[in-house]
Amino acid sequence: MLEYDVFAQRLSAHGSIATTKCAEVKLDTDLDGRQDAFNPAELLLAALSACMLKGIERVTPILKFEFRDIAIQIHGWRQDSPPKMDRIEYTIWVDTDEQDRRLELLHENVRKYGTVFNTVSAGCDLKGQLLRGKPE
Known about the structure:
The protein is α+β, with helices and mostly antiparallel strands. Helices cover about 35% and strands about 35% of the residues.
């Protein structure tokens, strides 16, 4: 079983920081919000996108899947009572010359083998699409 550690600390009423290994992320914990940091909901969406990207990096050498670029857009809807992410939708763009069936196989792998993806999908409505090309 893999284990993970993150340390988070309040710096002031306007923000906090999370650290792991040699990395740090500014956290928007200000009640008025901050433009220069991720709030908790955005962090969740960022973790989900990182999970998808890492899954693609892991599986493409195994599938011998060739691509030039990948981009992901994620949008989440938060309900107020009780507060939770109600729905998340995503689009993954893959710039590739691979056949459509191979794109479908890549998307299947993203949906099936992502730790964060599977955790989030168990708690809210998570759907999306994988498209050929680049975002407009």
